[in-house]
Write a structure and sequence with these properties.
Elements lengths: L1 E8 L3 H12 L4 E4 L7 H5 L6 E4 L7 E2 L6 H7 L2 H10 L4 E3 L4 E4 L4 H13 L3 E3 L4 E7 L2 E6 L2 E10 L14 H8 L4 E7 L3 E2 L2 H7 L6 E8 L2 E10 L2 E3 L1 H7 L8 E4 L6 H11 L5 H5 L5 H11 L10 H12 L1 E3 L3 E2 L7 E6 L17 E3 L7 E2 L4 H14 L3
Helix pairs in contact: 1-5, 1-13, 3-13, 9-12
The structure holds flavin-adenine dinucleotide (FAD).
Cofactor: FAD
InterPro entries: BaiN-like, BaiN-like_dom_sf, FAD/NAD-bd_sf, RsdA/BaiN/AoA(So)-like_dom, RsdA/BaiN/AoA(So)_Rossmann
Keywords: FAD, Flavoprotein
Length: 392
């Protein structure tokens, strides 16, 4: 029977990072993936340029039932460590916005870098291969792999979440957790487009293509990022971010001019230019199409001079206190990540090893640690993968 020190299931960001680190320690490492190519999510990430980390990554950018769990891993292998690796490989990159680092060229460069590191440290990669069953033994595990069997001392589950099943996502990590009696926090799609009722879509249709820098809130969480009106309602980074916090039946609150005291601005306009139409005054601050739609929706087609403070307050409320109830989300089909996963109470936060199953590790997205949009999810994959790689 084939025998190695470490089997890593999943040649994604977390699995490859873990394999490199274990390989550096002289461990014999076999990485299995049922996909035909490694790092498929890296390849399509960041619009093909891979937002590989965030300069400002810190534990507050992650969602988990235990917000403290990620602190140790993020401190042990930081964004600066990953940036140093990228620089060592001479990969050019830039900050796009809000600390998000992207390759200047292609996401393929990140995959090639990881593959080169794996090769350098003698990691074996076996693609188009899945593990069918896992049997615990006295000193490790025996896996049924393809037609044969593989023995290993350490088994690292880096099989990712449920998002984008078309790209090979499976619930395998959760099944393995169940097999070993480990708790799993209920999963749900996150960083996912929200959907809206036909009536809302009809109202928003004329705005398709309009973009604003909005502040979107749900409960006590808010994000200030770009929002785009589309034929599917509202979309863009701000909406994806809030989707990770939104629950069925809840409203989201949108401020389309969060930095502006619109009431004061409209009062000034009324004094200085009372014959102006509302949409013209609004168009000073907002895209013209949006200004027109708001005036039409409110039925305010007259001059500013005829509008009372009460009316101007209504306008401000429509712009900065817009409430909208999503009907649902597009689900795992288009979600960038999966919220929930292996309950962090089951894992050692320094090593990612299951507390009750020595030699079994869970890293990356399969764990109940989910980042915001902006390079945080890859940073979690690098950090958690690196930690497991030091001990597996
Ligand atoms: P994955 O990358 O999902 O890797 C898991 C691997 O396991 C896969 O290769 C899969 O084929 C394999 N696998 C699954 N089941 C089995 C099985 N039974 N047997 C064998 N192999 C199996 N995050 C960012 O930080 N920045 C971005 O720019 C970004 N853009 C994204 C864009 C899109 C469209 C999507 C979908 C996600 C994006 N993400 C981004 C999120 C990021 O891709 C993931 O969080 C990250 O890839 C998780 O890494 P992972 O190694 O845990 O899992």
């Amino acid at each position: 029977m084939e025998s190695v020190d470490v089997v890593v299931i999943g040649a994604g960001a977390a699995g490859m990072m873990c394999a490199i680190e274990a390989g550096k320690r002289g461990r014999s490492v076999l990485v299995l993936d049922h996909a035909a190519a490694p790092g498929e999510k890296i390849r399509i990430s960041g619009g093909g340029r891979c937002n590989f980390t965030n300069i400002h990554a810190s534990p507050k950018n992650f969602i988990s039932q235990n917000p403290h769990f990620c602190i140790s891993a993020l401190a042990r292998y930081t964004q600066r460590d990953f940036i140093a690796l990228v620089e060592r490989y001479g990969i050019a990159f830039h900050e796009k916005t809000l600390g998000q680092l992207f390759c200047d060229g292609s996401a393929r460069q990140i995959i090639d870098m990881l593959l080169a590191e794996m090769k350098r440290h003698a990691v074996q990669l076996r693609l188009a291969t899945s593990a069918n069953s896992i049997e615990p033994t006295e000193d490790g595990f025996v896996l049924a792999v393809g037609g044969g069997r593989v023995r290993c001392k350490s088994l690292v589950m880096a099989s990712g979440g449920k998002s984008i099943p078309k790209m090979g996502a499976t619930g395998f990590g959760y099944e393995v957790a169940a097999q070993f009696g480990l708790r799993v926090v209920e999963t749900r799609p996150a960083l996912v487009p929200l959907t809206f009722e036909a009536r809302t879509l009809e109202r928003l249709k004329p705005l398709s293509g309009v973009a604003v820098d909005a502040q979107i809130a749900c409960g006590r969480t808010s994000f200030s990022e770009a929002m785009l009106f589309t034929h599917r309602g509202v979309s863009g980074p701000a909406v994806l971010q809030i989707s990770s916090y939104w629950r069925e039946g809840e409203e989201i609150r949108i401020a389309m001019l969060p930095q502006t005291d619109l009431f004061a601005a409209l009062r000034t306009a009324r004094v200085e230019n009372g014959r102006q139409a509302l949409q013209t005054a609004l168009a000073v601050h907002l895209p013209k199409k949006l200004a027109q739609t708001i005036a039409d929706e409110l039925g305010l087609t007259g001059q500013l001079a005829d509008m009372s403070d009460k009316v101007l307050r209504r306008v401000e409320d429509a712009v900065n206190g817009w409430r909208i109830k999503p009907a649902g989300s597009e689900g795992y089909r288009t979600a960038e990540v999966t919220l929930g996963g292996i309950d962090t109470r089951e894992l050692d936060s320094k090593t990612m090893e299951a507390r009750s199953v020595p030699g079994l590790y869970f890293i990356g997205e399969v764990v109940d640690v989910t980042g915001w949009l902006g390079g945080y999810n890859f940073q979690w994959a690098w950090s958690s993968g690196w930690c497991a790689g030091q001990v597996a």
